[in-house]
Amino acid sequence: MNYNHRLDRVKEHVHHFFGTRALSQLSYHNLTHTESVVSHAVKIANHYRLEAKDTFIVVTAAWFHDTGYCNGEAKGHEERGAEMAAEFLRSDGIDEQVIEEVKGCIRATIWPQKPENFLQQIVCDADLFHLGTPEFSDWNKLVRKEAEQRIGKKIEKSEWRKSTIKLLETHTYQTDYCREMLDKQKRKNLEKLIEKDREATLEDEGPAEIQLVADNAEESPEITEIKKPKNDRPDKGIETMFRISSNNHQRLSDMADNKAHIMITTTSIIISVLLSVLVRKLEDNTYLIIPTMLLLTICMITMVFSILSTRPTIPHGTFTQEDIDTKNVNLLFFGNFYRMSYTDYANGMQRMMNDRDFLYGSLTKDVYSQGVVLGRKYRLLRVAYNVFMFGVVVSVLAFVIASILFEH
C-alpha cells in the first residue's frame, strides 16, 4: 500500500473539511494549529525513522485529532475526531487494524494524556509540542481567546495564568526526543509565568501591605521604609523610552569614535609618508616646500581635532550628602562616584531607587549628559573632517601649481 499517497488524500480531506466550515470561534483549534501538529508529528516520526505504516498512523491521527471541535463542544471532541477519522479511512479502504491504531492515537490526546504505546506517545507530544517553544506565549493567547469565545465571557489574566502554570507543571513529554529538545524551553516558559504571577500578586497586595507596615511602624520603630503602591513604580513605557534613548546615544558615540579613528589613522599615514619620503627631497625641490608644509599642517590640525573628540573628560568622582538630599547628582554615571566608598554609593543608590522623582531625574540627566558629550564629539569631528576635506583639496592644488610653475 502506498501510504504516502494515502496521506495526501487525508491532507486534502482535512483541508476541505476545515475550509467548508465557519470556524471564527476557533482561534486555536483550527487548520493552522492542525498543520503545526502534523509538522511536529512528521518531525518526531522522522527522528525515530518509523516505518511507512506507523508514520501514516501518526500523521493521520495528527490531521484528525481536533476535527471534533468543529461539530460540538470541547468536551468529547477527541472521540468525535476519532470517529470522523474512522469514517473517512473506511471509505478509503484502509485496514481496520490501522483505523483502530489511528483512533487510539487520537483518544490518547485526552487530558491528562495517558498514551498506551509509542505511536500514541508521539501524537501526544506533537499535540503539545508548543509548550516547549519560544512561541508558547502566542499560542497560549489564542487558546485563551477561544476559551472566552466558547463560554461567552472574559477570563481574567490571573485566573488563566494560574491554570496555564498548572498545565505546564503537570505536563510531561512522552518521548526522549521531545524531552531533550523541549524541556529546557518549557521550564523557561513556566518560570516566566510564575514570575508574572508573583508580580501580579505583589501588586494586588500592595495597598494592604502598606497599611500593615504603617500599623506596625509604631510598634516597630526599626521599620523605616514602606512599600510603594503600584502607581509609584516605574512605568514600562517610560523605562523603554530611556533604554532606547540611551542605546541610541551609545551607538552614535561608537560611530563617532570610529570616525575619529579613521581620521587619526589616515592622517598618521600621510604624516609618516611626508616625513620619511618627501621632506628629504625638499632640498632639491624647494618649490614643494610650501605645498608640503601646507599638507603637513592640515594633517596635524585634523589629527588634533580627532583626538580631542575621543579624549575622555572625567569629573571629580565624588558626591556629597547634600547632593543626594537635593537630588542634584547622577549616580548612573561612573564619573560622579568612582572615588566614593561602596557604602556611600550603595546608600545613595538605595535612596534613588526608592524615590521615583530622583530615579527619573537621574535617568533624564544621564540621557542629557550623553547628548552633551555627543554634541561635543560630533562638533569636533565636523571641524576635523572639514579641515581635512578642504585642506587636502588646497594642498593638492598647491602641489599641482608648484609643479607646473616651478618644476622646469
Count of discrete domains? 2
Average pLDDT score: 85
Order of helices and strands: HHHHHHHHHHHHHH
**Unreliable parts:** 217-233
Would you count the extended β strands for me?
Answer: 0
Strand residue percentage: under 5%
What would the principal axes of the Cα set say about the shape?
elongated
Query: In CATH terms, what is the fold-level topology of the largest domain?
Result: Hypothetical protein af1432
The CATH first-level class of the largest domain comes to Mainly Alpha
The share of residues in helices is over 70%
Overall CATH architecture of the largest domain: Orthogonal Bundle
CA gyration radius, whole angstroms = 36 Å
Plain-language structure description:
There is one protein chain. With 408 residues, the protein is mainly alpha-helical. It has 2 domains: 193 residues, Orthogonal Bundle (Hypothetical protein af1432), CATH 1.10.3210; 171 residues. 71% of the residues lie in helices and 0% in strands. It is built from 14 helices and no strands. Helix 10 packs antiparallel against helix 11. The longest helix has 51 residues. About 4% of the residues have low confidence.
